[in-house]
Amino acid sequence: MKTKSFALIAVALLCVISATAQEQPTPNAPTLTAKLPLLTNKGDFFILQPKPATGPVVNPGKGWILYGKAGETLPEALAIGSLAYKRYNWGDVEPKEGDYHWEIIDRDLESWSKLGKQFAFRVMGANVHSKEFWVTPKYVFDAGAPYSRFELNDAKSTPAGTPATRLNPAGTPPIKLVPAFDDPIYMQKVEKFVRALAAHYDGNPNLAFIDIGSYGNWGESHMYPISKHEISPEKYQEHLAIYRKAFKKTLLEVCFGRPIYNDVYRWAADNGIGMRRDGICGNSDGSDVLFCAGRLPAVFEFFDSYEGMVKLGWWYGRKDKHGNGFRLKDCVEMGKPTWCSLSDEQHGLKLLADERPLVEFLANRLGYHFVLQQIQFPAVFKTGNPAMLESKWENQGVAPIFIPAALWYALLDDRGNVVEECAARSAKPAEWKPDQAVVVRDSVIFSKAKPGSYSLAVGLKRPGIAKPAIRIAIKVETSDGWQICGKVNVRQ
User: Which of 319, 388, 418, 429 has the greatest count of CB atoms below 10 A from its CB?
Assistant: First the structure.
């Protein structure tokens, strides 16, 4: 059959656009426009050179992080975000020893899950933003753990915040009790809590990661602006080791705080703990997370609100007297993160409104972004006989994919239903490095499909999910998550 005839058949192909997986936010994600791809006939083979997708391609395991309550998040943010995040005071989650209020976290996890988003969180031992007095639970101090008092009255320090006076002792200034983070009693109570945390959450498929938050203000492994003594690297590594021992399945992330802990961060990366930097565009260019680059996911959070950084000039890379101020795009290229916060609800929407081209560009650049550049496939498959398929891919993100994924091929009938699937066993998406092309050659056997005409489709699947869960960044027709290459025939 001539090329023109095959092209006409491709145009007439029925396609059903639908959700691909529970984790993929399909109802809010941009829809790929189905257009006729460049399909050419090379004798017994077809070659498809699809056009790259335009606009953001939202996928699981990467992208923009949303803050705030699920029910209050506007569609504009839901459409661009892939993950939701929140921090909790330890004293709220465990006000009395052994009295675990998991429902505080569970409510957020479940509400975001219903919107098709994964969730991540941190439990903190110190938090100068807290409206509650007991950040570390009262029972820890009652058991004899030492503490110091901290007072913050600098209302101009917007990133540091000003503690609320509610629940402070009558007649006292706004204070917080700061535990001695290396004290044996404090460490014992942390270990008991972390074991219980892991028993409840480790391996939850709706959790992308959990931060290690037991040391430092906001759990960020630094004492700014508390200015109390820092613990030694050896003691800080004990904090990480407690989490590492308890969690066997769920990804852990540790926040960069101070260069004195660089050896600890190296140990963390060597032991399967990713890194995050809560200070991007302000006092960090993103290089602080390179300890885990290429091996584990890195996470970014802004130093201040979007408006605050614009006002200071940091957003545009203008340095202040302390050397603060880096452009976000440069930070992403330097640190190669998998996720980045979109800021909170109010500021995130402002960022999205003012910088939509940048936000959409980085939605694809963060983490992995797989583009199928070309695929060659036979016009005829013979039942039970191997057929060679060759495809060329490029990961146009800044990082590898860190969630399990496999390439599959399928034959679809004229209604878009899957007739037969076959795994591409030679393809290893986890090894597709950023900004490098890779050629996959695989022998595919379809043995169940009856003779007739079908559509050959390609998809990236995740374990335990029947349909392709990861969108390939190309403009082709789709059916139930499968992305269609062209018409083929099956013969005996």
Answer: 429
Six token digits for residue 25: 């936010």
3-state DSSP assignment of residue 170:
coil
pTM for this predicted structure: 0.87
Locate 203 and state its tokens: 């391996």
Record: fold of 63-365: TIM Barrel (3.20.20)
Could you give the 3-state DSSP secondary structure of residue 465? coil
Could you read off the pLDDT of 286-343 as tens digits, one per residue? 999 999 999 999 999 999 999 999 999 999 999 999 999 999 999 999 999 999 999 7
Strand partners, 362: none
**The pair of three-digit structure tokens given for residue 301, joined into one six-digit string:** 């959070």
- Domain range annotation of the chain: 3-56+369-491, 63-365
State how far the Cα of 241 lies from the Cα of 221, in Å rounded to an integer. Answer: 14
CB contact at 8 A, 477 and 18: no
Please report how the helices 328-335 and 356-365 are oriented relative to each other, as an axis angle in degrees rounded to 10: 0
Calpha distance 464→4 (Å, rounded): 40
* Type of residue numbered 210: I
In the CATH scheme, what architecture does the domain 3-56+369-491 have? Sandwich (2.60)
Within 13 Å of residue 125, how many CA atoms lie on the same side as its CB?
29
